[in-house]
């Protein structure tokens, strides 16, 4: 059974710590400096922190107005818009937040990595559900009622409008699994 979004009862600081540990692993894999200070000042760090705070505040009626202010501040400071209700599990990494737009109804598992200009949006009120261990390249769009399986890579500028199977690499407009020759 897949678990989407944040584990219930897990403190927001614990989830943020998991996000930054995952970002450290990505940096280490690229051979880049990966100290804690580097993670805190890197592109996308404030976007992740503000999103997690927005999501935490949005779950309670008393703090919902603060959630809306934090969402606006994230848009102003980082150039990204992430809906208050969007739910991502630990290990959420935004490498470059500019142009990232995520609908409030999106649900996602662990270890999701987004590049700049990614849009994860709804179609007629229905939003995507993402599994775990997913990489989404710059400018990619994931739109509508669909499921992106686990261990999926979505190429830059791909437009995903149909479900993506586990372990696939989705490329093109409309996106389809790499190596799929059907039109």
What labels describe this entry?
183 residues; alpha/beta; 6-stranded mixed beta sheet; 5-stranded parallel beta sheet; 15 strands
Characterise this structure.
The protein is of the alpha/beta class. It is built from 4 helices and 15 strands. It has helices at residues 12-29, 36-41, 45-58, 64-78, and strands at residues 81-82, 87-88, 93-94, 101-102, 107-108, 112-114, 119-121, 129-130, 134-136, 141-143, 147-148, 153-154, 159-160, 169-171, 176-177. Strands 3-6-9-12-14-15 form a 6-stranded mixed β-sheet. Strands 1-4-7-10-13 form a 5-stranded parallel β-sheet. It has a 4-stranded parallel β-sheet with strand order 2-5-8-11, with no helix packed on it. Helix 1 (12-29) packs antiparallel against helix 3. The longest helix is centred in the N-terminal third of the chain and has 18 residues, at 12-29. The protein is globular and about 45 Å long. The mean pLDDT is 91.
Shape: globular
Largest sheet strand order = 3-6-9-12-14-15
Output mean pLDDT.
Answer: 91
Tally of individual helices: 4
Provide the low-confidence segments as ranges.
none
First-residue to last-residue Cα separation: 32 Å
Residue share in β-strands? 15-25%
Order of helices and strands: HHHHEEEEEEEEEEEEEEE
Radius of gyration: 16 Å
Helicity level: 25-40%
Structural class: alpha/beta
Number of E strands: 15
How does the SSE layout of this entry go?
Elements: H1 12-29, H2 36-41, H3 45-58, H4 64-78, E1 81-82, E2 87-88, E3 93-94, E4 101-102, E5 107-108, E6 112-114, E7 119-121, E8 129-130, E9 134-136, E10 141-143, E11 147-148, E12 153-154, E13 159-160, E14 169-171, E15 176-177
Parallel strand pairs: 1-4, 2-5, 3-6, 4-7, 5-8, 6-9, 7-10, 8-11, 9-12, 10-13, 12-14
Antiparallel strand pairs: 14-15
Helix pairs in contact: 1-3, 3-4
């Amino acid at each position: 059974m897949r678990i989407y979004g944040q584990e219930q009862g897990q403190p927001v600081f614990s989830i943020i710590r998991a996000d930054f540990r995952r970002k450290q692993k990505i940096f280490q894999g690229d051979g880049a400096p990966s100290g804690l200070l580097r993670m805190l000042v890197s592109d996308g760090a404030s976007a992740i922190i503000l999103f997690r705070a927005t999501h935490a505040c949005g779950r309670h009626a008393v703090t919902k107005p603060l959630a809306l202010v934090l969402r606006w501040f994230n848009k102003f400071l980082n150039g990204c818009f992430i809906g208050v209700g969007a739910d991502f599990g630990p290990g959420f990494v935004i490498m470059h937040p500019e142009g990232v737009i995520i609908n409030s109804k999106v649900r996602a598992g662990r270890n999701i990595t987004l590049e700049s200009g990614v849009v994860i949006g709804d179609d007629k009120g229905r939003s995507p559900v993402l599994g775990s261990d997913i990489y989404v390249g710059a400018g990619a769009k994931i739109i509508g009622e669909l499921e992106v399986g686990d261990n999926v890579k979505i190429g830059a500028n791909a437009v995903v409008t149909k479900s993506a199977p586990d372990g696939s690499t989705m490329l093109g407009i409309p996106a389809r699994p790499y190596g799929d020759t059907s039109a």
